[in-house]
Amino acid sequence: MTAEELLLKIGKKDIAPVYFLHGEERFFHAEIVNALVEVLIAPGDREFNLETYDARDRPVHDWLGGARTFSFMGGTKLVVARNLDEAAFKETEVQLILDYTADPSPGTCLVMTAEKADRKKKLFKALTALPGAVECAPPKEATLAPWLTKRAQGQGYRLGTDAARLLLDRVGNKPGLLAGELEKVLIYAGDAREITENHVAEIVGEIRAENVFALTEALKTKNTEEALRVLRRQLDHDEEPLKVLGTIAWQFRLIWEVKCHQEKRLLPQKIAEMVGAKPFVVEKAMKHTKNFTERQLRAAFGFLFQADRELKTTGKNPRTVLESLVLELCSDGGFR
What is the pTM of this model? Predict the structure, then answer.
């Protein structure tokens, strides 16, 4: 079952007692939970009948106990346990979870979430086989324009094909970000129920254009505030921390390689062939090479290596690791 199929069921009040939402698209996790809240719990009862737990630091007994506790005033109780894939469960705890899914509390809807569900593990093999298991995977590019059109239609608007394509061109393919920008467009359009390219062009900025070159330029000029702003914007748009780090490292590696070839007075086309990149990418990198000495680039790779190690082996908050990297690169010990 897909996230969209489940949302249709929830809209018809066809509710299962247990759901397992797995997949990296957290926007769909949130959409499903919000839809369940709207259908199951009256606004005045949400303080009592909505319980949310982080499985990484809350024992299984806590959230399963919450699921087995009677709801307030006889309504339906919604219990959400997040991040099961990042929790370390004992075998007895795994069995407690499976026992609950086999005999759930009739007055409760339990929602469990995980970005990654390793089906080789007993717990996730069982949870992904549940009738309420939903894969929240990133949507395919070709499905996004129809998805936007349908979303607008659900709010009483008609989103034209060209307008949908422009929205995708400007925003990218992240559903959460697309939904937020579409909402702005619909509010801006007001009573105009036909959404055109002009509406999108007026209200939606070039979000895709703010890429890693903006970040490297901010680092080069030691503009800490701007570098942090660009980084946080990328992370807020659900970019994977390792992907962000890898892209930064790739850009610095490219700058270093291009710089070495430039010293041999090679033409951009030849450099592009040698480094395996498009000519326009090399030309952009060439604009940065004069800003870095070899010593500065070596220092940058030292910071990048440290950040990579911390992201992969320490369990530190990824945002903190990347923000610390930016601070290092912008400090007096970085690019001088």
Answer: 0.62
